[in-house]
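Pair request: fold both.
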Amino acid sequence: MSFPIRTESELRDYLHSRSLENFNKRFDEEKEFFNRLAYKNLPYIYDLKHLAEMTDASAEQLEVFILNKEKAYSSFEIPKKVKGYRRIDAPSKPLKNVQRWILDNILYKLNPGKYAHGFIPTRSIFTNAEKHVKKQIVMCIDIKDFFPSINLKKVRNYFKIIGYNDRISLVLSELCTFNFRLSQGAPTSPMLSNLIAYSMDQKIASFCRLRRLSYTRYADDITISGGRILPKYKNLIRKKIERAGFKINSEKTRVLCRGSCQRVTGIVVNEKPSVGRQYKRNLRAILHNILKNGPNFENRNNDPLFRERILGRISHVLNIEPKLGEIFKAQFYSINWEEYTVQNQKIIETELSIKSLKRNSFTNGIIPFNLIYSFSKIPEISTKSMLDLRESISGLKEKCISHPTKDDCKTCLIKRDKDEYKTCIKYILGHYLQKTGGTHHGHEICDIGIVDKISAKHGCNICFIIKPDLESGSERDGYFRQFHDSIHKSGINVVTTVTMTDIDNALRDRIYTAMNENRIKKYYCFITEVEFARIFSDFREKHCKK
């Protein structure tokens, strides 16, 4: 890693080492950039090669990040709180390291102003909301597509304004954007958005101050509060926001009077900062029921992070209403969580394993099993039910017998008189897929292939790889061979694996490496013990009673 250039003498030595033509002229030009950056305590960077040296990366790697961004980002969607989906473009780990260097060494050294409260150390939703306590009128404005509204040109111009030369300003802006926009997922996007919105914040805040109005912004949420005169300025404020290059989401814009619940970034501000009556009432009821019935009984949705989510809610109350938060905290720690922790360890490990796969997938997406239409009506089951089924599930096999005949497999779905069928995973899945896959000899790409719908909308070819036991090395190798062959097979849209044991770290690394390297667009579904317990429970309820 290159040391930062701190003096003009070091600048001269570095430029001399680059063997530049017209050295004296270039030195004078770069000295001006160096002094502007030194005044702001920012690192001087000459070009891409110099940035690579400072970030402990290679110039070739940075060029790949810039010229082939599709390979440097993992794109997926997560559901929004109300409706629709939010697209996340997450950078790969090497690119994220470079972006983190830019954030720590450049962006965090700049002043975003006193009106921005999001993504800034020492500021929070609380500091944002407390500026609007006990106001007659509170107006909440949501900026539509906040990050994507800031394009590459704006980012490049910002780096030039703070003192960087044209070459490195373009490089830095390319490294911080995806599809010519700030991405949701890059660590640099939040701070860059604050810095670029600084000018808008100052103009609107100045306008508000002259009219005795309070102004703050938390990411894409603008809040203005004051007296009854506030609503008459709504259109003027909207024009100022639009002149800054942003659009208002009219559906989320609200004007709240004193008689209603005035909520700012999730905090009620009518009289004092509060999490709200309903929030407190719900949390109090949850803790009461857990103390009465136990955590396993109350975890009805089989949430592997049930305990952590409750603790997160309590932490939120502690930040806003400390005295009440301490009461909830005492109740939480008076609960006996030992049995819950032991019984849910398997579920937690499986959930984290799958989440790790999701985080490390590249442009290919992982889908939940019930997004496949054949499984879409399978209900949730409780943690207790899942634990009760564990022994039965561990005894399931890929096939009914070691060497089934074609006749066995052709008619098994209509023959219900053989008990060995009910321990066959293909037989169980066949009741939902309407197909068992027939007999196999160990060298087929997949065990079952079907045409089905995803989310009841898109028909696609889905293959199933069934390996109940991954304890031995040969089973893991066989599982990976089938997975690898399936993802590289054209015509297969969704690769689904079914296993009753955990996918260990080594195998998981091989899986997401293969996913990342695959250039054919695929979707993936991983059915492990947790998901199969729901399928098996539904199967026994519907097909085994007779």
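--- second member of the pair ---
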Amino acid sequence: MRANIKQAYQSAGVSEAMPSGGLRFASAAGVSGGHAGGARRESRPTGSVATPTTAETAAGLQPSLLSIENLSVSFSTAAGSVRAVRDLSVQIGEAEFLGLVGESGSGKSVTAHSILGLLPPNAESTGSIRFDGRDLTELDERSLRKIRGSEIAMVFQNPMSGLNPVLSIGSQLVDTLRAHEPMSKQEAQNRSADLLDLVDLPHPRRTLGSFPHELSGGMQQRVMIAMALAHGPRLLIADEPTTALDVTIQAQIMEVLLAARDEIGVAIMLITHNLGLVAGGADRICVMYGGQVFESGTPDDVFYGGRSPYTRALLDSQPRLDGDGETLLVPIQGQPPGDIIDLSGCVFRPRCRYAETICEEADPELVVVGESGHEARCLRLDSILTDEPAVEAESHARVDHSDEPPMLEARDLVTRFTGRSGFRKRLDVVAVDGVSLRVGIGETLGVVGESGSGKTTLGRTLTRLIDPDEGEIFLAGRPITDVKGAELRQLRGDLQIVFQDPYGSLNPRMTARQSIEEPLRLMGMSRRGMPARVLELASTVGLSSDLLNRRPAHLSGGQLQRVGIARALALSSKVIVLDEPVSALDISIQAEILNLLRDLQYQYELSYVFITHDLSVTRHVSDRVAVMYLGQIVETAETADLFDGPAHPYTQALLSAVPIADPRLERERTRRRGRPGLP
């Protein structure tokens, strides 16, 4: 990260031609004039609150930069009018960092799109969205286009879909700059390089000539942030900017956002489902569910004094890096509200463990429950206990198998891929480089590392979906490296894999029942016994029988992953390789799957190879952990030993980058700097 992003911002030329009302910098010494009277903005420590509360704003102490009042958004569908946002009121002050958190379908992205006037034609909205005194809902498209990018900018969740795949990075940055400011192409190119340097992209000039597909996900997201900051916006909306990124890249993206707030005074609205991301950096947090704000306050208010049942349920279902790995996660029962067409009472009522009859009769209001503007929504705030005992894991006595051979073992495993780089140039990539590992009976080995480190290739090599080039694989002491044909098919009954993408791993034309039947049929099971076996498997993984006749398009992510696990269990497997099984799931659904996997392991003495980039999940599920980097295992240890005293610098860098859902711990942590070599 640049030592002073303010100076970098000036070198990018933003001070020379700012839009009306945007940020202006008077000199390289860092004196800047804000929109209101040229007031100087000072750098602020992370977590400080620079803006007044909603009540103070209403009292006229300082107007909010953005004020959303009673916003409601609905979409016309064949089934009726779907309510995505309901009577939402949110304020953001100058240089304030607001975290907007909640599960998928809570209305976070719809709120962001409403601010910029990017809703689809079938959307209907009411309420006001005032930005610097102007009601954005009353502006025409031409006026909104002048504001987009220049005063309010947005970073979208998927950077690849936000970048044009047939234009170079330089061309897209130049077009962005010249769309709002008159300048020559050469001037725009120079400023584009400075903007890439601003977001800490290596070799900015070289990157200008690259195409999106030639950049990693983290580099693509930095380009999107550079575009968003190009014209010195006063408000930056970041919609899940770190989703699917490695923890090290995620930490670097957050550094860019925090530096933009602290050094140049940009207000930030960060939309995320990761509570750890907002714990240490946000000034205020709004927890959304069903299109409503269920709690609002400072990070300390929300994490230490959360009053809304939904907020506390989210925190209970979140695995933590500093957890003991023994406490069961508490999942939120049921599914997030998809299409809210007609629901009386509290929208969280069907999933709330505190729900009573009164919750069906009235929709709760957002009321002040503490100082600093802390607000919460619940009809039973006064009767719900604020402190609850943690739910402890059931004690399971494991059988000692130390005198038996490991269930799965790899010795000096090497897997190579051969391709072409340029005309006639042969390229050999060593994806797995001399890996040795052991997984005992009923044990979980967590395999962690960044994208490209070889984790998925290792998992597919262990399950013989890819043939190794060197080394040996043993299953319960039996060599399986060279088995083929019918013998390999028979092996599938003992060695299964659950893939990362539950949607892509199932046939979209087959029902859940047919998908679970498929491995049974391939292994020669009679049709007479199949229905009972399918029902048994569905019950084992907690899948309701009425869902078995649905196709993947009509199942949630958590339900699809349960189908994948049922398929893996269908043939009484001994070893299951789990490749990022919860990465695409909401926190509450993730907790259900993790608890399910633990219960199944104790019940059937299953051995897991759990592949993930989420170290918080790793700590919760693993007995031992192997850290992979550039195709090699650089460190292996018992879970507690590795997390409490990592020995390898790469492991230390990974652990320091993981956000913790605890504001005090986040503010006190020191993250290791540096950019490790790309896998």
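Observation on the second member. The two ends are 20 Å apart (CA to CA).
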